[in-house]
Write a structure and sequence with these properties.
This protein has about 375 residues and is of the alpha+beta class. It folds into 2 domains: about 5-250, no CATH class; about 280-385, no CATH class. About 35% of the residues lie in helices and about 35% in strands. The strands form 5 sheets. Strands 3, 4, 5, 6, 9, 10, 11 and 12 form an 8-stranded antiparallel beta sheet that branches. A 3-stranded antiparallel beta sheet has the order 1-2-13. It has a 3-stranded antiparallel beta sheet with strand order 17-16-18, with no helix packed on it. About 20% of the residues are buried.
Length: about 375
């Protein structure tokens, strides 16, 4: 029989799982933002009543790896034996396979000390049991990664899904007499994002997109759930059995998934709302410019040749006014702020970017929302506005 585990703070259902005899479990949702499809952490902590063992089940983490970045405008690509060679290859932040990440995750959770992986197995997959959630999750990630393109009425890039996969892995470790079981329910999605043929024709936005190389070969991957168990050698067999019973029967409440998708939808709707506001201001400026031009033509028609000096003086003043209007219109269309790189040069980023980061090669990227923890992006440095 499955037990409903409720949020300690709100009393709302959080998850369901089988709780073996001699164990108790509690649930909690933490406001920890790890990305648009991981906007919070939901977790269940189970403890044996004798205090010897514990099991932690929590929502996972999401990562984006740039496998290759290619530039078809300046023709810096070079193909050899069917492989893409880059003059300046980009370093991946985390290296596949996933087992490498599991080792790093476990070592960090233990705060150092010796760690020996002794066995591998497979866990029941959340996505294997819920294929509808898997498909929706992949599409939500895909939409988010190209969401910056939603900020403009005509797309300057297009994304193409190449592959996706699901994998569930359980790994047993030993460390200083302790037995640690770590399981992850992993997904990955590989896609390419290329400039469209109309990008250059779309004015300044298209040129900025090409200059910033908003195209490449990407892999979005992450763990949907993380299952961690810790015990001692004396309780290894019985706790392993209890762990598998809990993990095999575990599922987060449907409200957890709905909340995650709602957060992603709110982000995309926010991007569209900002775009609509920019476009509305552009239209106001265009109408005002048309009105001013019509007024100017009428003024010229109504004045006589004898007032030519006055007309020319009025013309000069009007042109200065139109120039200011045109400049304001240009800034509204481009929607940018200027930032200063570490070498003193400047770069422009969209006004929707709340933070801008630079890597060692001088490449920059804008991020909307809260600042990113520097420990998560060691190769990037935040730069300030001019």
């Amino acid at each position: 029989m499955l037990t409903v585990i409720r949020n300690d703070l709100t009393g709302e259902p959080l998850a369901k799982m089988f709780i073996p005899e001699g164990w108790e479990a509690r649930g909690l949702t933490l406001d920890i933002y790890q990305g648009i499809d991981k906007p919070f952490v939901a977790q269940v902590l189970a403890r044996s009543k004798d205090g010897s063992s514990s099991v932690l089940i929590r929502t996972g983490e999401m990562f984006l790896d740039v496998l290759e970045s290619f530039d078809r405008v300046s023709r810096t690509d070079a193909f050899s034996d069917g492989k893409l060679n880059k003059n300046l290859p980009l370093m991946m932040r985390r290296q596949l396979p996933f087992s490498n990440y599991m080792n790093a995750f476990t070592a960090k959770a233990l705060n150092g000390g010796p760690l020996e992986a002794v066995a591998d197995a497979h866990l029941p997959s959340v996505f294997g049991k819920n294929p509808g959630i898997a498909k929706k999750q992949l599409l939500a990630k895909f939409d988010y990664q190209k969401s910056w393109d939603m900020a403009y009425p005509n797309p300057v890039s297009e994304a193409r899904l190449l592959s996706d996969r699901e994998e569930s892995l359980l790994r047993k470790y030993r460390s200083n007499g302790r037995v640690i079981l770590v399981g992850m329910d992993l997904t990955s999605m590989e896609y390419e994002q290329n400039m469209t043929s109309s990008a250059a024709a779309y004015g300044m936005i298209g040129l900025l997109a090409m200059a910033r190389k908003w195209h490449g070969h990407y892999v979005v991957w992450g763990s949907e759930n993380i299952y961690m168990c810790m015990t001692d050698a004396a309780h290894e067999n019985e706790v392993t059995t209890a762990y598998m019973q809990m993990v095999s029967s575990f599922t987060f409440d449907e409200s957890i998934y709905k909340k995650k998708f709602q957060k992603a939808d709110e982000y995309n709707q926010g991007m569209l709302a900002k775009n609509q506001a920019i476009q509305a201001q552009v239209e106001i400026n265009r109408q005002q410019l048309a009105i001013n031009q019509a007024r100017l033509q009428q003024t010229l028609a109504d004045n006589s040749r004898a007032m030519s000096d006055m007309i020319m003086d009025s013309w000069d003043k009007k042109m200065a006014s139109d120039s200011r209007i045109s400049q304001a219109r240009s800034e509204a269309i481009r929607g940018v702020n200027t930032y200063v790189r570490t070498d003193g040069t400047t770069v422009e980023h969209s006004v929707v970017s709340d933070h801008v980061y630079q890597n060692q090669y001088g490449d920059t990227v804008g991020v909307s929302g809260p600042a990113i923890d520097p420990s998560l992006i060691p190769d990037w440095t935040e730069i300030g506005r001019l």
